[in-house]
Amino acid sequence: MSVLELRFQKTDILVVLSNVVPTLSGLWPAPQQGYNQPPGQYYQPPPQGQGHYGQPPPNQYPPQNQQYGGYAPPRPSKAMDTINSSPLPTGNTATRLPLMVPPALPAALRRPLPDSMARPPGQYGAPPPGQYAPPPGQYGAPLQGNTAHLRQAISIPHGAQFPPTPASPGYGPPQIINWDATADAQTCRAAMKGFGTDEKLLIRAIASKDPHQIEALKASFQRQFNRDLVRDIEKETSGNLEYGLMAVARGPLLNDVHTLRDALKGMGTNEALLNDVLLSRSNADIQAIKSTYSKTFARRLEDDVKSDLSGKTERHFLMVLAATRAEDAAPVVPQQIDQDVLEIYKATEGRMGTDELLILIKSEFSGHMEDALLYQLRQANDKYMHAATLLEATMAGAGTRDKLLASRVVRYHWDSNALNNIRGAYSQRFGKDLARRIKGETSGDFERFLLSCIGESI
Question: Polar residues: which segments have biased composition (predicted)?
């Protein structure tokens, strides 16, 4: 059965959702650019020594030293508020995801694209310069059958190849940067040498580093003292602080593979960690994760996923691990989107739109499968708001999920521009500053570590 042969079965709905949900977000500007942060609170230059990834690509991310968002605030949508919040506190910030509904659909379902959201011809899916990527493309197999009419419609030469989306910082080959790690390496050694550990000094030296700086720091530590920084941290710290510092010291790629191993080994599966690491990732990142996992643990990630998951959930994650999604440089084919939307329309008995996708997923799936699909839908709709709600989920209710909070804070801290957007989204969604929320839920050195990761002085 091809990916487009849907007959109202759950597994076929899964295939289309996995292919279409990420792709839809590439057709129109995302609603995630509408958070109005208090002036002067965000987009300040990074603290001394922290480093950053340079200027954001034009027309994709808000410029520095301005309020977050260059567009009008998103139109409230009750259903999308449910997507981003349930069962968290409420507030309307997300918008309905617009769909290109094919002419064959009933007139009531046809929604014209607003002029303010239209793009010039030929601009679909154009990647921004630099290392940031637009919303992700599709998972699953390439288009089946004769696609000549689709290629002709947008003038894509047959057999055309498009450059792969670059790996995220820290997932590609090592880079030489213009930064001297000598002093910070000496600080780390001084903090852990002798009796006792100066945790505050260690946090200041490590927590704010970007992926390239942390690699330079580890190399300098090894060169100066012939010692492994990660092993020393493991010996000299404990508890939640150890977990967080180790996550930073390993770097994003190595920490991902250790996180996956922890999520898959033993009885049961840590579904939240599995989703965080694997869903909505580029092909290059997935390939790097699989390769490093195999080298680190002498076992294939696909085999571990197969042994831990089953049924539709196993199939879903194996599709993700296949790393066959369309690259960001490949133009979106509007006619194919129309066709995919029509297939979802058939599979949902005529119910369409983001609201109905949410209802469909909740009614047709449950457990980890439901969580994974909703994760991708929310990520495609607004990745910054999604990250903000994931952070809040670790602190909401009785008790704090400390290790999951540390894992997510470290994950978001690698990209300082994205972190600023996430903090703005959090403030918009929950009416409070993320740093203040963390202070209310944590304490001691662990609190100082988390605050340092999000750019606060300690």
Answer: 82-95
